[in-house]
Amino acid sequence: MKIDEHYTDRDHENRSNDTYALLKYRLTLTWLERFGKNPREGELRLLNIGCGAGDFNVLAEQAGYLVDGIEPNPRALSLARQKSRAQSRLESISIFDFESTVKYDVVVMHDVLEHIEDDDGAMRKIRSIMAHGEDSVLVLSVPAHSALFGIHDEQIGHFRRYNKRSVRAVVSPYFNIHRTRYIALLGIPAALYYSRWRRIPYPMDKPGLGRTIFDLFCRLEEKVHFGIGSSLMLLCTPNATYENR
């Protein structure tokens, strides 16, 4: 697979202004709070796998989590280190090489699983670094619908896109899935038009009416669930069946 490093770096650099990314991040924190993961009631350790430029790290730290992150892209990790607190552990390493004596209360993985060829092995590894039982929580997001696979996926290094059935097949051997939700409704026509049909990069940093409407819908989706979108989010807890194998 040939990854366009310049395109990937631009994607990381624009994340702070990406309302789609902010939608994922805010929903993640909302889900965790509603699931009882309130760091203000006790110390909670969070691992952000594929932390990118560190924007979610900052929001999670502001919410009170003790945040560590791993990110194999050196440019993105450099940006994350500039934003995160000094005591955060940030490593340029893959999930398969990551080792820790810490058992994490929360693991977050935003748009990472699709970059990993052995997604089953990745889920097994993630399960091994989490605290046991339903006291620990995993939140992940993945790009949805294989029909949307296009030049964006190719340039950024995606092996696949998922649907509810395919992502459940990978996740459920190791985790109980408590919540599944599609997000980014307008990501569907955007992916079809730019990435699938025209095969050109998304206009990441170009203002215009289309971008304004897209941003408004992303903000609206913090409150409204449209039932379809270009990405899937899941909230999971460790599977006791796997523990007993």
Highlighted features:
245 residues, alpha/beta, Rossmann fold, 17% strand
First-residue to last-residue Cα separation: 35 Å
Instruction: Note the total helix count.
Output: 10
Low-confidence stretches: none
* CATH level-four homologous superfamily name: Vaccinia Virus protein VP39
Radius of gyration: 17 Å
Strand order in the sheet with the most strands: 3-2-1-4-5-7-6
CATH topology: Rossmann fold
Question: Would you write up a description of this structure?
Answer:
- It is globular, with a radius of gyration of 17 Å.
- It starts with a helix and ends with a helix.
- It has helices at 5-13, 19-34, 55-63, 74-83, 119-128, 151-156, 164-171, 187-198, 209-220, 240-243, and strands at residues 45-49, 66-70, 90-91, 106-110, 137-143, 175-183, 231-238.
- Helix content is 39%, strand content 17%.
- The chain is of the alpha/beta class and 245 residues long.
- The model has no long low-confidence stretch (mean pLDDT 89).
